[in-house]
Design a protein that fits this description.
The strands form 6 sheets. A 7-stranded mixed beta sheet has the order 14-15-18-13-21-19-20. It has a 5-stranded parallel beta sheet with strand order 7-6-5-11-23, covered by helices on one side. It has a 4-stranded antiparallel beta sheet with strand order 1-2-4-3. 50% of the residues are buried. By secondary structure, the chain is an alpha+beta fold. The protein contains 14 helices and 23 strands. The protein folds into 3 domains: 3-105, no CATH class; 146-341 and 556-603, FAD/NAD(P)-binding domain (3-Layer(bba) Sandwich); 344-549, no CATH class. Helix 5 (155-166) links the parallel strand 5 (147-151) and strand 6 (170-174). The protein is 27% helix and 23% strand. The protein binds flavin-adenine dinucleotide. Residues 151-157, 174-177, 202-205, 208-210, 213-216, 280-281, 320-322, 325, 328, 403, 411, 413, 423, 425, 577-579, 583-587, 589 line the site of flavin-adenine dinucleotide. GO terms for molecular function: FAD binding; oxidoreductase activity. InterPro entries: FAD-bd (IPR002938), FAD-binding_protein (IPR028348), FAD-dep_OxRdtase_2_FAD-bd (IPR003953), FAD-depend_C (IPR049516), FAD/NAD-bd_sf (IPR036188). Residues 147-184 form the FAD-binding domain.
């Protein structure tokens, strides 16, 4: 049912506006088609849809809804209405307003309205003055500017660096991996020749883990919030297509992310940020419980060679290293930095033919998908079930699909050859013939008990254990252990040939049901059976499970103060993003980086606004 509510003075939000799929111009069109105006007019009880002034409306969101409970698939819109703009339009709208007044209770619409502002506005150079000069001029290096190291150029590190540089800090961005151009070649060498660079791969390098990814920009932290909108608008400034601001399930795809990151880099360089690629953080310089700088080395060389190491001094260090930087967690432990284990999820990656998922989700509309070129988006799915706690004898757990990549491929996210883990990526058109998704169950920190000797890093060892088992099951050389879904349920080795997989480095029929402890396997089996009821046809011999999916989120949280983002145990250290346990996904990591950037700027007296 369509909802309409007063968002702020003079602004009304109309959500759940439904336009039947056969009437809508399709997924790539973001504008006011007549059917959409008709839907708006119907809610407002406005008699002539074509006369609705488009200028007064902004499309905030457009999603495709093909749920079976609906009579018909539809595009669903959220639209903001600026009443003031309606007023300033032609006289015809006056009647319209006056008929809305009793219906909506608009009383204050004549008064001045405040435009919605996002955090991005704070980045507006006119609003932020450093010593009265324009901070965006990279050549103007001010005396005594606070020096900040941002370690890691994933979404959290990039956004922290952006905010800090904009407000006038002297920022050095330290990244162990390569810029996207070279990183692309390293990933090519991995996929084609099986050569894994431990420092430049699917996890490490410019843009972080999200670069060779599906580039989904969905987030659970409130997609219409100012901070999420600010991140999305910033991405648009750097070249993302504007429809990500509106799309209900925005995604970019690797081909869009790579040029975007190049633009991001050039902007930071113009701001005067010193970007050091190939440079690995090995240690922190600590004096009197205060960070004074970092010890770095050339990441092309083996870690730990003191002759390569260089000490760089900073006033603050932002740690944005992601959750695959296990060497950094160990280093933090050596410094007694407070870290606490946290729950996360492990499981397998399932892959189906995309056509099957399109058919399950869309029925007769499936033919309109046309490998991403059609009007209808390539079908995805999201399933969540609670399993156990009943006669099944399984412990109560949540089991869910995660990081689903329609039209994508399964990729290797290991950072060393003895540990094997996988994830999914896609290109913007999502045109591949496969649909993959993680299927994971939650594991709580008390399940890592056998790794207790590793202290707060018990969860990391738990992950490592199953990554090692997966590498052994696959037989080495990055071959992934795989099993057809019916065989996983029946606990038998797949003896007939496996269905084709999008994973390029090879799959081997394996007993995946023996990989995890029995309680995790049982939960996965039970959940798959429940998912099949929601998505009939999900269990099929054409569905292939790949092992393992372990790095769903960080298994540890680095404790920090809520308002300043400073580590609770070491002054001057700012742990952020997914690796620190404060984000899960591209957008939430970027928001955390932005938030921390402002928090630190405030402490460095560079920025005085409210957060
Ligand atoms: P990261 O992106 O992990 O960045 C950390 C950076 O720090 C890396 O560049 C690394 O090289 C660098 N670094 C690490 N250690 C050091 C060191 N010692 N010295 C210097 N630099 C260091 N999320 C989504 O929202 N949507 C998706 O579609 C999606 N798909 C994904 C697909 C894949 C294949 C993967 C691996 C992840 C995907 N994710 C996705 C998750 C998403 O990428 C992460 O949540 C996000 O990148 C986390 O951002 P971050 O800045 O916290 O850390």
């Amino acid at each position: 049912t369509t909802e309409i509510r007063n968002r702020e003075e003079g602004y009304w939000r109309i959500s759940k506006l439904s336009v039947p799929a056969h009437k809508d111009p399709g997924k790539d069109f973001v504008g006011f088609s007549l059917p959409l105006l008709e839907a708006i007019a119907k809610v407002l009880e406005f008699p002539v849809p074509a006369m609705l002034p488009e200028e007064a409306f902004t499309i905030l969101r457009k999603s495709f809804d093909a749920r079976k409970v609906l009579k018909e698939s539809a595009f669903v819109y959220t639209v903001d209405m600026d009443v003031k703009k309606l007023l300033h339009l032609e006289p015809r709208t006056w009647d319209f307003i006056s008929c809305l007044e009793p219906k909506l209770g608009l009383i204050e619409y004549m008064q001045d309205t405040k435009a919605p502002t996002g955090l991005l506005d704070m980045l507006d150079k006119d609003k932020i003055k450093v010593d009265g000069s324009n901070p965006s001029n990279g050549s103007a290096r001010y005396e005594n500017r606070p020096r900040v190291a941002v370690v890691g150029s994933g979404p959290s590190g990039l956004f922290a660096a952006l905010v800090l540089a904009e407000v006038g800090a002297d920022v050095t961005l330290i990244e162990r991996g390569q810029p996207v151009e070279q990183r692309g070649r390293d990933i090519g060498a991995l996929v084609v020749r099986k050569v894994l660079s431990s420092e430049s791969n699917f996890c490490f390098g410019e843009g972080g883990a999200g670069t060779w990814s599906d580039g989904k920009l969905v987030t659970r932290i409130g997609r219409n919030s100012d901070s999420v909108q600010a991140v999305l608008r910033t991405l648009v400034q750097f070249g993302a297509p504007p429809n990500i601001l509106v799309d209900g399930k925005p995604h970019l795809g690797t081909d869009k992310l790579v040029p975007l990151l190049r633009n991001f880099r050039h902007y930071l360089l113009d701001l005067g940020v010193d970007i050091k690629f190939n440079t690995r953080l090995d240690d922190l310089v600590v004096e009197n419980n205060q960070v004074k700088g970092v010890v770095v080395s050339n990441s092309k060389n083996e870690p730990g060679r003191s002759s390569d190491q260089e000490k760089l001094l900073f006033d603050a260090v932002v740690l944005a290293v992601g959750h695959s930087a296990r060497d950094v967690y160990n280093m933090l432990l050596q410094h007694n930095i407070e870290m606490v284990p946290k729950n996360f999820a492990v499981g397998l990656r399932i892959e189906h033919p995309q056509e099957l998922i399109n058919n399950i989700q869309y029925s007769e509309l499936a033919s309109e998908v046309q490998s991403g070129r059609g009007r209808i988006p390539v079908a995805d799915y999201k399933v969540t079930k609670n399993v156990g706690g009943d006669e099944t004898g399984i412990e109560n757990r949540s089991c869910y699909s995660f990081c689903m990549c329609p039209g994508g491929q399964v990729v290797l996210t290991s950072t060393n050859p003895s540990e094997l883990c996988i994830n999914g990526m896609s290109f913007s058109r999502r045109a591949s013939k496969w649909a993959n998704s993680a299927l994971v169950v939650t594991v709580s920190s008390d399940e890592f008990d056998s790794f207790r000797s590793y202290g707060p890093l018990a969860g990391v060892e738990f992950q490592r254990e199953f990554e090692k088992r997966a590498a052994e099951m696959g037989g080495g050389n990055f071959v992934v252990p795989a099993q057809c879904v019916p065989d996983f349920l029946a606990e038998t080795l797949s003896v007939t040939s496996l269905p084709a997989s999008s994973y390029r480095l090879g799959v081997k029929a394996s007993r995946l049901h023996d990989l995890f402890p029995a309680n995790i396997t049982k939960a996965l089996q039970c959940a798959i059976e429940m998912f099949d009821k929601e998505l009939p046809g999900y269990i099929t011999k054409d569905a292939l499970l790949h092992g393992v999916e372990t790095r769903t989120s960080s298994p540890v949280q680095i404790s920090r103060e809520a308002d300043t983002c400073e580590s609770k145990s070491l002054k001057g250290l700012y742990p952020i993003g997914e690796g620190a346990g404060y984000a899960g996904g591209i957008v939430s990591a970027a928001v955390d980086g932005m938030f921390c950037g402002f928090a630190l700027a405030k402490q460095l007296s560079l920025y005085g606004g409210d957060l």
